Amino acid sequence: MRVTRLWAVIKKEVLHIRRDRPSLVISFALPLLMLLVFGYTVTMDVDEIQTAVLDGDRTRASRELVSAFAASGYFHFTAYPLSRPELERLIIGGEVKAALVVPPGYGRALARGETAVVQFIVDGTDPTTARAALQAGELIARVHSTKAIAAALERSGKSLPLGGLELRPQVWYNPNMESARFFIPGLIGLIMQNITVMLTAFAMVRERERGTLEQLIVTPVRPAELVIGKLIPYVVIAFVDVTLIFLVGAFWFGMGMAGSVSLLAALSLFFLLGALGLGLLISTVARTQLQAMQATMALVLPSVLLSGFVFPREAMPAVIRWLGNLIPLTYFLEILRGIILKGAGLDLLLTQATVLVVFGCGTLLLAALRFRKTLD
Question: Is the pTM of this model over 0.85?
């Protein structure tokens, strides 16, 4: 391999990228756009649930209960129906997702020290919202019940019995359990995989469509020099993309960095090399840019579903979980979340790092061999 020939291929590819302004703009703008769109839309946090209240008691006690629900931030009372049929119409029409029904006599029951039953209705067509509403409703009711009992005992001159169990929960690494802190690192990996695969897949296929690939074949440039020379500019572009979306994630979405930046950069390099090699492999099979696009999109869906980007892999059947082990993004997501959120070092991520190194080197080698065969 001669450096002069390799440098000539690199200069040619850079010149080609500069002349193809639309593709250059897309390669930098698309990752940022995807991060901003997905960063705001891909979230499991549910709050401000549209809620109705059917207050059949209309006493100070019922108003305190409604206020406790509203003050939690999970529920936003937007409707005050006067009858059960009206409440059902609101839920069926989708105007509210939850409803609090306070029966007549609620306040008197509390005052007499009896159990007061309140109905809490949740629209189960959206399981995520329904689950969050139920958990929040049960917690608020429990806290409110404890306060009511304490107030009743205080009025009667008694006090709560001593002893019992006190649970002191602690949530590490993401104390507020914000979805953004979980999804943003995953988005970085998903976006980088898709962008880098497209970059190389389109670049090679475009050369073939324009007939310039045959011109390169008749030059003294060797296949290995051609492959490496064409990949290097895209490695630089991919790293610039990684830096940009990481900065946006840190300063726009408040994603912190608990671990080593240099370790993350080194492991990202192997992941990017593997993704670029994957794009090169696609370019050896696809004959047109449309075919390259279809092959690239075929990688996106399994990556989103099986890698653990959205759905927990622990909940998947064993066969599906095993298939997820074949996707490099699975390991890169563990590295991203481990380093960014937990501050994990290489000793704790050795398995994932080894898989990425093997994947990066192996994919590049396979792509080079396949590309050389195509040229022959």
Answer: no
